[in-house]
What we know:
- The complex is a heterodimer.
- Chain A is 31% helix and 25% strand.
- By secondary structure, chain A is an alpha/beta fold.
- Chain A folds into three domains: 27-115 and 182-262, P-loop containing nucleotide triphosphate hydrolases (Rossmann fold); 269-355 and 441-520, 3-Layer(aba) Sandwich (Rossmann fold), CATH 3.40.50; 365-439, no CATH class.
- In chain A, a hairpin with a 2-residue loop joins strand 23 and strand 24.
- In chain A, helix 14 crosses helix 15 (424-437).
- The two termini of chain A are 28 Å apart.
- Chain B is an all-alpha fold.
- Chain B has a single domain (20-34, 47-327), classed as ABC transporter involved in vitamin B12 uptake, BtuC, CATH 1.10.3470.
- Chain B is globular.
- The termini of chain B are close together.
Amino acid sequence: MGATDASASTAAGPSTVAPDSAGAAAVAVVVDGVTKHYPGVQALTDAAMTIRSGEIRALLGRNGAGKSTLIRVLSGVERADAGTVDVAGERFGDGGVRRAAELGISTVHQELSLVPELSVAENMYLGRWPRKGGHVDFAGMRAGAAAVFGRLGLDIDPDAPVGSLSLAARQLVEIGRALREEPRLLILDEPTSALAAAEVDVVLDTVTRIAEAGVAVLYVSHRLEEIRRIAHSATVMRDGRVVETVDTAEADTAHIVSLMLGDATEAAERPALRTVDRDATPLLSVRGLSVPPKVLDVSFDVHAGEVLGIGGLMGSGRTEILRAIAGFAPAAAGTIAVDGRDLGRPSARAMKRLGVGMTPEDRKDEGVVPLLGVDENLVMSELDSVRTGPTIVPAKVRNAAQALIRRLSIATAEPRTPIVNLSGGNQQKAVIGRWLHAGSRILLLDEPTRGVDVQAKAELYRLVRELADGGVAVVFVSGELEELPLVCDRVLALREGRIVGELTGSEVTTDAVLTAAMAA
Amino acid sequence: MTVTQTAESQVSPGGAPAPRMRRSLNEIGLLAAIVVLYVALGSTAAGFLSVDNQLGMLRDAATVGIAAWGVTLVIISGEIDISIGPAVAFASVLVAKGAAEWGLGVGGAVLLTLAAGMAWGALAGWLRARFEVPSFIATLGIWSALGGLGLYLTDALPVVLPSSGLFDVLGGTVLGIPTPALVMIALFLVFAYVARYTGYGRSVYAIGGNAPAARMAGIDLAKVRVLLFATTGLLSAITGILLAARLGSGNGGAASGLEFDVIAAVVIGGTALAGGRGSMLGTLLGVVFITVISNGLVLLGVDSFLQNVVRGVIIVAAVLVNVLVTKRSRATRET
């Protein structure tokens, strides 16, 4: 699969449609005064923007800035409390998803919703398969799919099972599916975030072509590099408001970052700097780690008592690095050393025995055993200390669990409560607690505050720093770059599989981290 | 997109009982049902309450119960074993042939059969663990192969056991209690202990509850899975030996359909087919429940084909009640 015209846009800057040129392109979408309130959260306040046909508008903002809510309102999934949306002059009103489709708004969400066993053509007509004479019109579907890809200059076989396609190709199928409806506004939610660098070009080219055909595109992304390549303009949101819309050719990164962050009252939040002894042998050393296709070349050290942050956007390779170190994914190249001793290709068991503990990114899928109690989830990785001979002694389990529950302030009625009953933050504490119980010296935390409420996050940060005070080496991976200064002594910026920056001590500020991770 | 969590009380919504009590509810409910059955059958079925019949029921229970302990663990771990029937039959053939025709002597034949049971079980477990062959398929293969082998080796005729003191004891009683029942109870205690108090047992629950999480926590999934099926193989072998001792012969066609009775007993006892939940006590009550119903239907003179209909209806009803009760009281969270 590939684009039929070979070159990617090497010149920086988007295509030639200049929506600002006097009256050249019609207005596609006008959002005015849109407000949306959820219980306890003011998600959108007075959001306003105007997008022209053929314009690619990037949408930027921190997590929680309101981007998703705005998209949900535009795609009809949510109804705004106030404000109006007009598409090509027609008022959106209250219609919901069907109205959005009528008006020509198509959305490609972050999570792909394709059926792997069905063909490309079948997926593009999912749920709306054309009939001919009482049975499904496969020929018609095939032709329709081929027509869409033809317009985009893509070489994708309509009969190929989607499961056999690369992630980039699947993303294109999703985009193709959205295009089938001939939309006026195409909304793309982080379309390249899960793609490796090499795959991104085709997607960007396709989006450019789509805009050239007159479709207005709203492109949500954190990746400034890509935004500069294809977007004409960028709207920055913060705290539920539209802050400013800038011309991507003119605005510089620092300006955009400051728009995203506002007057960060960061000084008040920053904890005191910690002293870390970096002269001793590092507890964990990684050199030249490569886990294709996401991780290309990563090297770093972590010292005892240090909290090392690895910040990067989704798709930069964060999780793959941790899994390779913990022994759950084989690295193609590179060395891993613990206490200065090179380990070759360590197995998960070997790493666990050496004191490496990893908390996975997705605690629901890989972290907790939901029906077992908090106590069992806590002691699961190390049973010897709660056993006498082969027998697990309930009293020992209870004591161990209670000690950890107290230490981590896990809110649970009793230790035996099924862990699924706990809030996300408390579940996360328990998953971390599991490795404390196992006596881990090296903790690899993959997005430990994902889906965790504000108070629990603060408790987790404090806990991590306390553990480091006790001599544990912590690697703290996060896509929420703003939290790294709150907990890390040193931060590595990860972009497209490589370390692109290192910040130490007082250099670690949200601005600096964000800039390094996004920079273009 | 994630939703912010708010702290919530630990009592499940709707004021339903906390989880531990809920499990006991299931078992108490079963016990109550068994009591009701006893009362009903005691008054309507001739001879139900006689000592002879009670002992007979104990013996019948053992045929299902012994294997049921192992299958309970298998199902809790998220797998299934459908090989029990032919495995038991084949074991009876092996021990009979070994003792009567292959000159292994009684002790040797018994050992051979036990070893064979562990071997075919371990094979199924290895196929699952190493090659991810679904356990249904792996044990289906065993079901088919052992069934055929048993009949082939015997030309579908019974193989008479040589007379032996050991077989007499195994097929008879000890202190008035049928030996198989004693074996069943002894094994129940062992398995209840293993399930609750050993690392292996807790690993089974962990794997069934969330296999990726168990793996991340350092549990050896492959080892546990092989052991699980080797165990059911061993238990099938034990059941086959006891059956042969009772019948006085090894029979390739014996224990037909036993696998479904075992699974039914386990599921009625509250073990979820999806895995992650279950208890030995529940299975014990499930075994008793099924045995009492089967026995009652026979004593009531119900046509043998209709008996199957009744059993089918009761099994579905029992599990339906179980599922409804559990759904209502289980607290689930979306993260």
